[in-house]
Every structure is written in C-alpha cells, then in structure tokens.
Amino acid sequence: MLVAVLSFKGSPGVTTFSVALAARWPAPARVVLVEADPSGGDIATRFSLPPSPGLLSLAADVRSGKPDPSLLWHHAQALPGGLPVIAAPPDADQARAALLALAPNSTYTVLKLAAHTSGNVVIVDCGRIDHGSPAMGIVREADVLVLLTRAHADHLAHLARKLPAVGQWAPRPVLLLVGDGYSTAEVGRELGVPPLGRVPHDSLGAAVLCGRRPRSRWSRGGPSHSALGRFANKVAASLAATPSQLRLEHDVLAVPRVSEPQNVQGGVSP
C-alpha cells in the first residue's frame, strides 16, 4: 500500500504525523517512511541523521538502473525505535531534484513497486502540495491520500476549492483536522466530506516524534504511549482495513470513522 500524507496550506504537522502513522502502523506490515517534501526535509535534522543514505542516494540509484522494490530499504536509516526512514535533504533545490528523478516515467514508480509488494506499506510525507509540486506524481500514484488541514475558515475555504480535484488524485482520500476551530461535524456539513477525526494536541508526543529528548518518564515510551501515537494507530488500523470494510458516507468513500478526542485544543507542532 502506498500512502501519501500532505497538506494544502500552512504547516499543520504533516511530517510529525507521518512519523507517527508509520511508527504505529499495525503489524505484521513491513513499513518504510519516505520524506518527499519539495521544500526540503526535516527528519535528518531532527534526528541527527547523516546525509546518506537517503532520498538523494535513492534517486541516484533509480537513475542508474531498473527500479527494484528492495531499493527503498537499502537507502533507509533507522529512527530510534527502528522505523526505517528515507530522509530528504534539508536543501529545497536538492530535494526537488531528487523528487524529479523519482517522478513516474511509467505505470509504476519505484515507490509503487515497493508498496505493491506483498506485506509492504510505503508512507510518503509529501509536505504542502500544489499542482506544480514534484511530489504530485507520487500523490497521483498513491492508494490512500491523507490530507491534514487546520479547521479555521481560511484553511477550509482554501481546501473547498481543491476538493473536486482530490477525489481524482487517489481512490481513498481521507481528511484529518488539526487544532481548534470548527468541529468535525461542522466541517463535514460544510464541505460534504466527513473528516476521519481530529489530530490531538500532544506537545510531549510531538516532541518525541520530532527527535527531542523526552522530558518525562511518561513520554519515554515513545509514540505508543502518547495521545498522538494512539490516534495515529487508530488511523493506521482504519487505513489498513480491507475494501470490504469501507463504507460510503454521504456519497463519499470513507474508511471507518476514528472517534474524535474530547476537549482538544491547539495543534500538533510541526
């Protein structure tokens, strides 16, 4: 399965949630996280990773030979806890060049080849997306699209203009709200798309997922012990559901709803 995580406006914490989603994906799937943000990566800096292997070395390998599904794991580094990650360079020009090298030149990209190998899940952090983004090819190849947005009027108005195109990009678009603002019910009523849930405000959990040293015994358990990690696990379990478990809600294809955390205020730190 190829899962693209993205936003249209601002910085609602796409990278942090992508790490949480990959780290909490249910077993026995073999998961790899690919950072494909054209504005440059954050993961290498957050976790003090060396520049190689990563997205640049993967792009060079793809250019030099036939795409091989096993290439992704050859160019991944392990985060604390063991999650394999292909980190993008912090420099935007280098990140864009690497993504252009990975752009689909046939029906299957190296990412999709790996994602459609039995047991594999490839989660791609596409950052903030627009039609000119070099990550758009990955978005169009995705089996599932996870769209994060803040729930304020300006963000939702921007999103409303993009929604007609979203359904054409991926067969299973999923909407997640971040931070305070309109409720999931209000957003669903206004947009005609029921959000799957709201990402909880969890500064300690987000800090761990951003590579910062845990400040308490509670947060040392990593994402599995945080509100953000538990929510990401629920989302991942829903996305991993078989097609027979999907249902139509208001004529929109949606995965089973994740319950919204109560009395949540604020957003996830990027």
TrEMBL record:
Gene3D superfamilies for this protein: P-loop containing nucleotide triphosphate hydrolases
Top-level taxon of origin: Bacteria
Phylogenetic lineage: Bacteria, Bacillati, Actinomycetota, Actinomycetes, Pseudonocardiales
Protein name: MinD-like ATPase involved in chromosome partitioning or flagellar assembly
